[in-house]
Structures are given as C-alpha cells and as structure tokens.
Amino acid sequence: MAADIVLGQYLPGDSLLHRMDPRAKILLSFWLMVIVFTAWSYISLTIISVFTFIMILASSIPIKSYIRNTGFIFAMTLFSSFLNLFYGVGEPIFEWGFITITASGIQNSIVVAARIFDMMMISACLMFTTSANDMTHGLEKIMSPLKFIGVDVDDVIMMITISLRFIPITLEETNKIINAQKSRGADMNKGGPIDRIKSFTPIILPLFASTFRRAYELSMAMECRCYGLKGSRTHLKNFKLGIADLFAMVLVGLIMIGVIFCNNMDIAKII
Amino acid sequence: MIELRNVSFSAYDEETSQNNYILKEINLNIYKREFVVILGKNGSGKSTLVKHFNGVLIPTSGDVVADGINTKDEDKFCEIRQKIGMVFQNPDNQIVSSVVEEDVAFGLENLGIPRREMVSLVDNALKCVGMYDFKKSSPNMLSGGQKQRIAIAGVLAMNPECIVFDEPTSMLDPEGRKEVVDTIQNLKKGNGTTIVLITHNIEEIFCADRVIIMDSGRIVSEVTPYEILLDKNYMRMLGLKATQSIDLFYKLAGRGINLPFLTADEDKCADMIVEFLEEKKCR
Is pLDDT of A271 > 50? Predict the structure, then answer.
C-alpha cells in the first residue's frame, strides 16, 4: 500500500528542533557544515562535536536511529581516517618498515574523522526533524531570490512537490504491474543478470505508459485550476521565525566565533 | 450560464489522414443553478463536450460562451476556469500536494489570493465536503471517496459558479460513491452551484433537472430523469441497469400499486411501501 511508504528519513516528533522554522534549520545546518570544515584544531573540533551532540539530544530522537542510519558512512569514515594516519609530514613518531606515523598524520586522521562524523550527524539531524513538505517549502523560500536571475523557482518547487506526491503512487503501481505480469507467468528471478534485466522490460514499459497518462491527466487538472495562468502565485504555507530559531542562530554564531578563535590555539602548545 | 452554438470538434486522424469529427454541431444551453446529467455510451463525446465548457478544448468551429466570455478569448482563461471548475475520474491524478489543505489551496495560490483570505476559504471548502478533520493528512492515507471529496473541495475553494463532474464515481467503491454523490447533492442544495454530471450510474441521475443523451458526437435527446426510467428503450440504448428498487416499482405498478415517486434508494423505497401499507390498513 502507498500509505505505508514514508518518504525521506523524517521521524515525526514534537521536539524543539521539530518545531523550528525549516528555513532557519536548512540555512543553519548548512552554515554549521561550513564551520565544521573551517575547524582545524582539537579545541574547535571539540566545541563543534559537543554542540552536535547537544543537537542530537535536542531532537529527542533515539541515538540508535542515528547510528543505524549512518552506520555505513561511519565505517567509510573510519577507513579513510585510518589511511590519513600514514600521510603525515614532519618528525616520525613511529617507524616500522615503510610505515611512518607522524604527529601531523595523527592530527589529520582525527580531524578528518571528526569533521565527517559531525557533518553526518548535522545532516541526519536536519533530515530526521524536517518533513519532506517542510523541506520543500523551506527551500522554496530560501531559493526565492534566484527569481531575479531568471530561475523559475516556483516551477522547480512544483516539480518537487508533485514528485513527492507521486513517488508512493508510482511504487504501488509498479507492484501491481509486477503482480499482473507474474500472474501471466513472467519469471523475474531466472537466468543470468542479462536475462533478469530483460525480464524487467514488461514492467518498465507499461509503467512508462501509465505514468505518461497520469501526467497528462494531472496537467489537465492543474490547468483547470488556473495553474500558470496568472503571473505570481501566493502561498498558503507561511513560516514565522520563533524564539527557538533566534536562539539557534545566536548559538551557531557563538560556535562560529569560538571555532575561529580556537583554531589558532593548539592543544599541544598549551600543554 | 454556458451557451454552445453550433459547436463542432475534430481531431486529425493520422491513419486515415482525415479529420475525425468527435462533436458535430452541438447547440446547448446550461442555465444557472441547474443540475444537468449527461449520459451516453463510451466514445459518444461526453468528456470532449464538457472539456469545451471551460476552454480546455477550443471548438474547431462554433462558439462556446461561458458566463458571457467566449472560450476563444485566451486572456480570460483564468476567469473562465475560476468560474467553471472541473472534477475528473481518477482522484489520484488531480491531487497535487501531499498535504490535504495545501492541495485545496492550490487553485487559490494560482489565482494569487492573499494568504489571510486563503486560510478561511480552504477551511470552508473542507467543511463543505466534510473533510475538515483530515486537513493535515496525506492524501495517500485516504480512501478513494475521501480523495475525490478533496478534489471537489479544491475546486470549491475557488468559488466557482458551475462545477463539471466527469464520471467522478466510476473508480470508487459503493461507499465512496455514496459519499461523493451526497456531496454533489449538498452542493446543489447548499451553495446553489450549477452542476453538470457525466455518469454511467442510474442512481446518480435522480437528482437531475434535465438529462442530456449523447450518441456519436450528437445530442440525441433532452429528457427528465423520469422519462428515462419510464422508457425501457432508453435504458437499453444507454446500457443502464435498473436497480432493484426501480424493478420493484415497475412490478408493483403492474399490479396496480402506484408508489408516489421513483427512487433508486432502497431505504426510501421501503419507507414508501410501509407508508402505503399503513394507509391501506387505515382504510
């Protein structure tokens, strides 16, 4: 059933992050990621990591779902940071055969791991707490200045909205066609890879045909409701920046100042 | 309200390289606050006809004048389509957004209605079709009848003077069909909206003021719903199937028992029979 499919990774809830304005959420997440990339010293990375952890707690989504959804990328991160370990320059701390490990190598690998990990968590936090619809509307508002350079934001957003609506319907239809072909004796799981790909033709073709028919009917229904006939559209959905959003902005601002300030402080020098 | 003068519509057929006439010289008037049902076999040109009403199709020859505006006037498309709304067969293919209230607002957004007015218009339209409680739901979670009612609300929110329904119940289960038919009847009673309904279902023609029968691109006859029910030839020609209550009506009439009026609703039919029997007992 189409009803079972939930798009994206949105986990409904009523936490502080869920209630935030999607515009603020998207922009601040983006901004945080930029800050993550400017962070270099251990102290500034610690500041960001602590903040990310606070964000995860504030989303009131169990840490389990974060780990489950980011597990694979996490493994990749560990691997790449492990490789970084061997590419340092300067005085070797450890030497064995062709393997040399330097202080800068260690710092590199830790920094890379922490950066990617923080970014993953920040984006997961955004995805988990923002529904696909809010995301679209948020993007719409953020992208609206692009109108002045000739990009038709309204159309792009309408396309995204319609795709979001029709993905579950198309999936349901695919299943129906698969069942219909199976009941006519089609075998999807026989033969080598090429045979299997070929066996999908009788599914793809009817799906295409019906999707085009849908598109035609939908465009007619949209035309009947005056789509594209008047110059500027108005919008039902309206966002208001709340105290939570202001608070988040101030926090991210402070984090940025902290990171820039601490970037030049090397923990090794302090010790 | 809508006036068709000598309307013909043809499409070019590549196989025979000829112009294929789908509508032939149709003259028709639809008056304000009227409930018109259009009947006809598949391919008789019903859907093509109603698509001329709001300028989705432009006649090859002849004129369609909707509320004083000729549909050939491209500058006024928006006005015509706001005045004459259309609801189609498949509810899934008319709903744009994955949130109910946003879909209902779609037409208003297109018209550029300010947000403040929009909110109350959307709420009223949803209340009118009895779907207010589902305001924030996703259409994917709703039944066919509920989805069709959302589609009706979407048209209704634009405050049209006339709504054209193109077989709105043909893809619904009996329960959904009843929901939609009740909604359409309420529109007629409550809002005084002009209604044009294409249908294959005999139960839906009872509330009509006038029935137009089409065959191969022409209007064959204009009758009242009762004339159709009384004449078995019409029923056969249109492939309509009599419901139990209509059969019963005829059988009772054959025995000299005349019920006050014809109905497709079994409950009403039963009530009438009970009333009749009680009257008889009193005498």
Answer: no
Touching check for A232 and chain B: CB below 8 Å? Answer: yes
Q: Would you call A51 exposed, middle or buried from its count of C-beta atoms within 10 A (0-12, 13-18, 19+)?
A: buried
A134 vs A130, A131, A240, CA distance in Å?
6, 5, 13
Tell which CATH architecture fits domain B2-240.
3-Layer(aba) Sandwich (3.40)
Asked if residue A86 lies in contact with residue A93, where contact means CB atoms within 8 angstroms, the answer is: no
Closest C-alpha among A169, A207, A174, A214 to residue A5: A169
Say if A169 is an interface residue toward chain B (CB within 8 Å). Answer: yes
Q: Which residues contact A90 (CB under 8 A, 6 or more apart)?
A: A102, A103, A104
Residue A171 has pLDDT above 70, yes or no: yes
pTM score: 0.81
CA B181 – CA B194 distance, rounded (Å): 15
What are the structural domain ranges in chain B? 2-240, 242-283
Cα separation, A233 vs B135, in Å, equals 21
- Phi and psi dihedrals of A114, rounded to 5? -65, -40
- Is residue B191 over pLDDT 60? yes
Residue to substitute from A226, A232, A237, A238, interface B, most B β-carbons within 10 A: A226
Q: Which residues of A touch B96 (CB under 8 A)?
A: 158, 161-162, 165, 218, 222
Q: How far lies A103's CA from each of A90, A171, B65, in Å?
A: 8, 52, 84
Quote the CA–CA distance of A140 and A160 in Å, as a whole number.
10
A147 secondary structure, DSSP code? G
pLDDT digits (tens, 9 = 90+) for B96-129: 988 899 999 999 999 989 988 999 999 999 999 9
CB–CB of B106 and A220 under 8 A?
no
